[in-house]
Amino acid sequence: MPAPKPTLSNPVRSLRAVIDRYDAVICDVWGVIHGGSKIYPAAYDCLLNLHQIGLPVILLSNSPRPVSMVRMQLEQKGLEPEMFGDIMSSGELTRLSLANKEHEGLMYHMGLEADRALFEGLSLSETNEASKADFAICSGFMTGKTPDIASHQPVLEQLSTSGAHMLCANPDKFVEIRGKKFLCAGTLAEHYEHMGGVVTRYGKPEKTAYDYCFARLAEILDADINRERVLCIGDNMETDVLGAKNAGCGALLITSGVHKGHFEKEQGKIFYQRDQSGVENFYSKFGVNPDWVMKKLRWNN
After folding, report:
1. Model pTM above 0.85
2. Shared domain check, 220 and 190
3. Between β-strands 292-294 and 106-110, what pairing exists: parallel, antiparallel or unpaired?
């Protein structure tokens, strides 16, 4: 049964109401399962119910960290490994590309020191001078305190002058932490492209991220995957929803995440859009519509 476009009259009250249309779930992490601290109780309950009915879940994160670190962080927050079938991150996809020697020459790292796990242990030649780099791994801004483009412009200009290929390990342009938005690597990548630089992105909405998920789901289910029966859940139109629709999957937009400013305050347990024309104008910016919208991921009403 095809999923209708969301309207004022049919936002989704619970995942349980629509899950029988799907055989598997690909779920975002930040903004859906947690917001930087503890796992959301309703999201935990939802994953528990999916586990109990035997519906496989692949967690797909645009974290610029290897899967081992993302998995450990989730366990520390209280999410047991058996609650999901597998996990993939944009950081891990970047690391796999580096391990496969898809990029050669001198590498420059643009990001926090904590992100170096992204390439630790790999046989790479690193330079601390952006002007000498053949390619740059961009995991984010180089300072955690109110990052801005202007302070990174000199490095970007040096990379551009040297013709360095940028590998973006997190396509998200911003993340929301405790109600405040912080810029991410995707913003730097977009700016670098505007300067004429070449960028390769890893993670959502790129095809390679979904290809990995489909391959793992086929292994878990021991069957060919019908992409129309895979539901992708996320809070970002530009990565989660766009990636899902490009991959031929269903898409559920969580409206309390990065786009919550485009939706009115809750009435009961759901979010109502301001008006239908406003919703269509908002979706048109991204060229896709989600199949469903829900305030927060929950199993029951």
Report:
1. yes
2. no
3. unpaired
The pLDDT tens digits for 185-238 are: 999 999 999 999 999 999 999 999 999 999 999 999 999 999 999 999 999 999
Give 272's contacts (C-beta < 8 A, 6+ positions apart). 8, 11, 263, 264
* Ramachandran angles phi, psi of 99, nearest 5°: -65, -30
Read off the CATH number of the domain in which 155 is found: 3.40.50.1000
Report the percent of the chain where pLDDT is more than 70: 90
Q: How many C-beta neighbours within 10 Å does residue 273 have?
A: 19
Residue for token digits 């242990």?
Answer: 121
Q: What is the reported pLDDT for 268?
A: 40
d(CA 173, CA 187): 5
Q: How many domains does the chain have?
A: 2
Report phi then psi at 24, rounded to 5.
-160, 165
Last residue of a domain, one of 201, 225, 258: 201
Burial code (b: 16+ CB inside 10 Å, e: under 16) for 3-35 equals: beebeeeebbbbbbebbeebbbbbbbbbbbbbb
